[in-house]
Design brief:
The protein is an all-alpha fold. Helices cover 65% and strands 3% of the residues. The protein is built from 30 helices and six strands. It has a two-stranded antiparallel ribbon with strand order 1-2. Strand 4, helix 3 and strand 5 form a beta-alpha-beta unit. Pfam families: Bac_GDH_CD (PF05088), GDH_C (PF21074).
């Protein structure tokens, strides 16, 4: 059905009549009564609408800095428009090359919403991959006599809807990642700059060919608080995934039982139920496992997750994958992320909750790489920490210092006021405070004490020495530049390590049945002289209105001196 004032017109016509309805829809001047076909197409492309959907062949949008000759699509020169003239809010693509790479970027940097054609069309590629991998599997079971030839095609038809669901699951996850990356792009400019340099120098990415910004352009954006646009993020993330997948395939991680376990879920239910053995023998099983594992790590951990672990502590891609997997399981992040992504709430609130949860992922992954035997024994470490974390999690808010507990509650309330479910917001904002339970469980194991006793002591000591206050101040330090960021992380690690050593020291020097206040009193009495000196320095530091690396380094050293020179007989 054609709307009033509309019509179907021949593109070879000399002119097309413009009705009042068309003028209103396209926001044309009242004096416009006729347009040539190319003029009408340009007017449609420049219309002030919510969505422009391109499903055709040809390049219709270019950057204002490009010429038609730069585009290389002469057949559409007459209808092509510049990105800076677009008034549409969102552009989606069912076709390829509907806009030049620079056109996409210009539109996005002017406030429009647009990804890359590769991302918008990735469902087709994903579906083809599933189809090929399923047919390879079925060819094998037919050859082995496990499936009759005449039953093959009906089985394929039976799985159509589930394959579509699997493909859409991947697509939805990718789009969540782009949205999260976009929301934090302004704050991630420096690390994105370094990652782009890494992709260029070590991974063979041609920045000019991929329309990715130069270091000079990134410096300019960083200076004004701007970051990568959606098309640039989509391109960068695609190259990150390719690079990390290549790393995995050069090692034996895809063959390990832990990661091979993801293979069956790639296939539809009928294949999992009938041909489980054939799935484990799939000729492309390593490639499938590597793809699934890397997609999850990047889609949930972020494009810079593995890169930052490499920068900070020299972690390999295998190390990053192992740490990601263990941290996700220990803290139940997969289930939490599923809730965040499926509950109804504003996108900005959803993004904030997931970004907040990623703080725990990053700290836990780093902790596992620094404190556990390497390579991480994923199953063993999950068994060592997961149940203990879950058993203590609900008690942690009650152990936090009152001002900190109030801040946690305030953050959760603010998220709830903006549309997040109250229980979900509370769970997310308490999560970062569960991270120290890794240390608590280690101390309990070393001291052969009950984990609840150690947790209560750990958090009480933390409040007593105001170490959380110092850690918070460290978090406020500049970390845009690599070395400043590494110094900041080293300070934070040092404070946590001191708290860990002090807790172990006090636990081993006191009776398990003593109230926590008596344990702290005993420690105060036996270390009185050192505490007086440390407190004097810390009081002076806390009195400074603005903390820098120098003052906080001194503070960390004062806390460390308490752990390293205890009179209770425990040597740090």
């Amino acid at each position: 059905m054609i709307s009033a004032g509309g019509g179907v017109f021949d593109r070879t016509a000399k002119a097309i009549p413009v009705s009042a309805e068309v003028r209103a829809a396209l926001k044309l001047s009242a004096s416009v009564t006729r347009l040539s076909p190319p003029e009408m197409i340009r007017a449609i492309l420049e219309a002030p609408v919510d969505l422009l959907w391109n499903g055709g062949i040809g390049t219709y949008i270019k950057a204002s800095t490009e010429t038609n000759a730069d585009v290389g699509d002469k057949s559409n020169d007459a209808v092509r428009v510049n990105a800076d003239r677009l008034r549409v809010r969102v552009i989606g693509e069912g076709g390829n090359l509907g806009a030049t790479a620079l056109g996409r970027i210009e539109f996005s940097r002017n406030g429009g919403k647009m990804n890359t054609d590769a991302l918008d069309n990735s469902a087709g590629v994903d579906c083809s991959d599933h189809e090929v991998n399923i047919k390879v599997l079925l060819d094998g079971v037919v050859s082995a006599g496990e499936l009759a030839v005449e039953d093959r095609n009906p089985l394929l038809a039976e799985m159509t809807d589930e394959v579509a669901e699997l493909v859409l699951r991947d697509n939805i996850s990718q789009n969540f990642r782009i949205g999260l990356s976009r929301s934090g792009a302004g704050q991630r400019g420096a690390v994105h700059r370094r990652l782009l340099t890494e992709l260029e120098t070590r991974r063979g990415v041609d920045r000019h060919l991929e329309a990715l910004p130069t270091d000079a352009e990134m410096d300019r954006r960083i200076a004004v608080g701007a970051g990568l646009s959606s098309p640039e993020l989509a391109t960068m993330i695609a190259h990150v995934k390719l690079a990390l997948k290549s790393d995995l395939l050069h090692g034996d991680l895809p063959d390990s039982s832990t990661f091979a376990a993801v293979l069956p879920d790639y296939f539809p239910t009928p294949l999992r139920e009938r041909f489980a053995g054939a799935i484990t023998r799939h000729p492309l099983r390593r490639e499938i496992v590597a793809t699934v594992v890397i997609n999850e790590m990047v889609d949930f951990g972020g494009a810079t997750f593995a890169f930052r672990l490499s920068e900070e502590i020299g972690a390999t891609t295998d190390d990053a994958v192992r740490a990601f997997t263990a941290a996700v399981e220990i803290f139940g992040l997969r289930e939490l992320w599923q809730r965040i992504r499926t509950e109804k709430m504003p996108t900005s609130v959803r993004d904030q909750l997931e970004l907040e949860s990623n703080r725990t992922l990053e700290r836990a992954a780093r902790w596992l790489l620094l404190n556990r035997p390497q390579p991480i024994a994923i199953g063993a470490d999950i068994s060592r920490y997961r149940e203990g974390v879950r058993a203590l999690a609900d008690r942690v808010p009650g152990w936090l210092p009152k001002p900190l507990a109030e801040r946690v509650a305030a953050h959760a309330t603010e998220a709830t006021d903006h549309g997040a479910p109250a229980d979900l917001a509370s769970e997310v904002y308490r999560l970062i405070h569960l991270f120290p339970l890794l240390d608590v469980l280690d101390i309990a194991d070393i001291a052969e004490r009950d984990s609840r006793e150690i947790a209560e002591l750990y958090f009480a000591l933390n409040a007593h020495l105001e170490i959380t206050r110092l850690i918070s101040a460290v978090g406020d330090l500049d970390h845009d530049q690599r070395w400043a960021g590494l110094a900041r992380l080293a300070l934070r690690d040092d404070l946590y390590e001191s708290l860990r050593l002090l807790t172990l020291d006090i636990a081993t020097a006191t009776d398990p049945e003593d109230p926590v206040t008596e344990k702290l009193d005993y420690w105060e009495q036996t270390n009185r002289s050192r505490l007086i000196r440390a407190r004097a320095a810390l009081t002076e530091i806390f009195g400074v209105s603005r903390h820098d690396l120098a003052t906080l380094s001194v503070a960390a050293r004062q806390v460390r001196s308490l752990a390293g020179s205890s009179e209770s007989g425990i040597v740090a």
